[in-house]
Predict the structure.
Amino acid sequence: MASGKTPWPMRSCRRADRFQSRVVTSRNPKLAREAEESLTTKQRLASPWERRRPRTTQLRDMGGVSHQKFSAVDPDQRLFQPFPSEVVFENYVPRQFYIATLALRNRDKVPRLLNVILGNSPYFELISPSDEDYKVAVGMSSTYRILFRPDENKDYFDELIIITEREKFFVPIRAIGARAILDFPEQLNFTDCPVRFSTRKTLLVRNVGKREACYSITTLSPFSVDPSIGTLGVGEAMEVTVEFHPPKTGVYSSPMIVHYDTGEDVHKSLSGTAVDVNIRLDKSSLTVEKASITLSNQRSLVIHNQSAITAHFQWKRFVDQEEEERQKLRLQRQEEDKLHDVPKEHGVVPPLREHPSLPLCTFQNQGTEVQGDCMPFCNDIFTIVPMEGDILPNSSLEMNVIFKPKEARVYQETVYCDISGCETRLPLCLRGEGVGPHVELSCDQLSIGKVFVGSTHSYRVLLLNRGVVETHFSVVYPERAVGCCFTFTPREGMLLPFEHQVIGISFNATVLGQFTEEFQFSVKGSPEPLTLTVR
């Protein structure tokens, strides 16, 4: 190998003979065009069908330069076939000399003129077999050498201009400098991973190239990579985490593309299989014992996690994510309508720019909390404790379902446990019956007998609370005329548990004749009032 003392540029083949020719493979073995990584110069020349067609910029009038105006070569083909179609230098050292050869074969059935030109480049020089245009015999090749002397280990590019009697076309010269190479595995497989759960694999990735790696990594859901962008020095290593979070069971695959700042993309393969794991509720239906209104009762519920993952759970109102999205959209539209209706009531319609965004709000009056993507189960009657949490592998978690009725009736609600490792939410049917106040009258009939008109008579009955809850009562008078003759004292009040209230009744007759009147005692929380019949 000659040193830097060799004259530059060179103009003759004899001078070029003093330099050792170094023709390298066309691409870095870890980058694009991996099929060319082992090609030698002889192999490149032997496989022209793998070369791309040269770029033609101008067609010439053959009559002006040759007596042979017709050619046996198709017009869409070149008169001279270049071997190779692209001159590539690679794995070179700065301030050293390298030579590559280019052969141009005459494909026509008559000799043809050929001229090759290289622009004024400080890095490349063309060594021609002749200083002037000359004819190449039929089927013969004219060989040119390209001398390359790099200053740095970086990319270089130039083009040879090939001028024939019929066309002008280009042969690119490309010098590929040092490249960064991150040694990711060709394929990464996630086998039998829990659905709706993040499975991670950490890779130790090294830069085995000869240049600092400035990279970015892209992939498709449900795969993700962290870090997805960064730099890594030559010979250095880093940890890269690949995450697989499948939303449904099944088989997934995705390319993982490593983009380098030098323009190359490296394609790797990611694949994974998502399955349901053994997580279940100990019962699908739960009935809580009867509870008095304003009081509560509870029962226990167990979630069994017989898998190898730490499962995160949360109780939800709706059966799946799609239904949640529909409900959130409906509630958001209702809130938007409310915001637009308020100014319209005052005769003012504000422009849209005054409301640049309408966030999802918390709809307390509908028992639904809408915040971002979270719509947990929220109910004033049934409460599950805890509402959200984690269950360790191969363990169980006991929780309580609290029933607190507001009315004396039967309640039924279906809730759904959204838990990692299960594609569908686990349903749980809750049932409970609310019991109203246990209030009685000491008698349900009061017989007055015969009395004089204008006379006043007094009676009393007892209102008994035989239950455990405090309740409110009130007397409901009938609308008929006789009802106005009666006065109840007290007319309303609170009745404590296991206590009684004396109700005084005063009657002042104002009309003649027989009568039967019904007075009702309304008890809060009781579906039916108590009735007192007076004759």
Notes: Helices lie at 13-16, 41-46, 321-345. The CA atoms of residues 81 and 105 lie 5 Å apart. The two ends are 132 Å apart (CA to CA).
